[in-house]
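hey can u check if this looks right to u? its 82 residues, i copy pasted from the old doc so theres a chance i mangled smth
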Amino acid sequence: MKLRDRRISKDGVVIVKAGKYRTQEKNRADALQRLQELIRSVTVTRKIRRPTAPTESSRQRRLDSKTRRGRLKSLRGRVTEE
C-alpha cells in the first residue's frame, strides 16, 4: 500500500491522509503518529560523507585485473595459419 503522507500543498501545509481504519478517531490517531514519525525522520542530521582517494594497493589490483582481462580478450582473435 502506497502512503501519501509526504505531500506539501502550495501554501506549505503538510497533508497526511489516513483511511486505514473504519473510525475517524483511529484514522486521526494514525495520521498524527505518521506525522510525528515524519517530523522525527526529518530532524535527524546525517553524517556528511567525505570522499577518500583509493589506496595504492587497490589501484594496483585494478590495473592488474585490467591487464589480465586485456590478455584474455587478445586471445579471442582469429587463429592465423603460418
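Residues 24-43 form the longest helix (20 residues).
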